[in-house]
Specification:
Layout lengths: L18 E6 L5 E6 L4 E6 L17 E6 L8 E7 L2 E6 L4 E5 L20 E6 L4 E5 L4
Antiparallel strand pairs: 1-2, 2-3, 3-4, 5-6, 6-7, 8-9
Length: 139
C-alpha cells in the first residue's frame, strides 16, 4: 500500500524467468525487464513503438502484461533503459538498439544504432531529451 492508501496490484506469472534488470520510463507508463537468459520483456502502455512492435504506429494506449520484445528475439540483452516513449537495449555483443519516440539514429526496421557499430557499448541511460552510452573502455 502506498502512502496515499492506493493499493498496487500484484501480477502473478507462472513459469516466469529470473528477472535480473528492470528499468521504468520516467512517466511510469512502461518498463523493460531483462531475464537471466538475456530475453527482454515489455510491460505497460506502448504509444509510439517503445515495445519494439513497429507494426502499429500511433495505436490506442492499452496496458499489456509482460511480453517478449519481438525485435530482440535471439538477442542476449545485458542492459536497458527507458524514458518517455523510448526504450533502449544493449546486447552482449555491445550493440545498441532503440525503439519508440527518440530513435532518429536507429534503423527503423531493426532498431540498431549503426553509427555506434565500431564501439562496444556496455550500458545505456536515457534522459528526457538525451541518451548516454558507456563503452567497454569506460568512455
Amino acid at each position: 500500500t502506498s502512502q496515499k492508501g492506493v493499493r498496487w496490484p500484484e501480477l502473478n506469472v507462472s513459469k516466469w524467468p529470473n528477472i535480473v534488470w528492470v528499468c521504468v520510463g520516467h512517466e511510469g507508463h512502461h518498463a523493460v525487464l531483462i531475464a537471466d537468459d538475456g530475453a527482454s520483456y515489455f510491460v505497460g502502455i506502448a504509444r509510439r513503438g517503445e515495445d519494439a512492435d513497429t507494426g502499429k504506429p500511433r495505436r490506442q494506449p492499452k496496458a499489456v502484461k509482460p511480453k517478449r520484445m519481438s525485435k530482440m528475439e535471439g538477442q542476449h540483452v545485458v542492459s536497458a533503459a527507458c524514458n518517455h516513449a523510448t526504450s533502449a537495449l544493449v546486447n552482449k555483443e555491445g550493440e545498441l538498439y532503440m525503439f519508440g519516440k527518440d530513435t532518429a539514429h536507429a534503423d527503423q526496421t531493426s532498431g540498431l544504432v549503426s553509427d555506434l557499430a565500431d564501439v562496444h557499448i556496455q550500458s545505456v541511460a536515457l534522459g528526457k531529451a538525451h541518451a548516454v552510452a558507456v563503452t567497454n573502455k569506460g568512455a
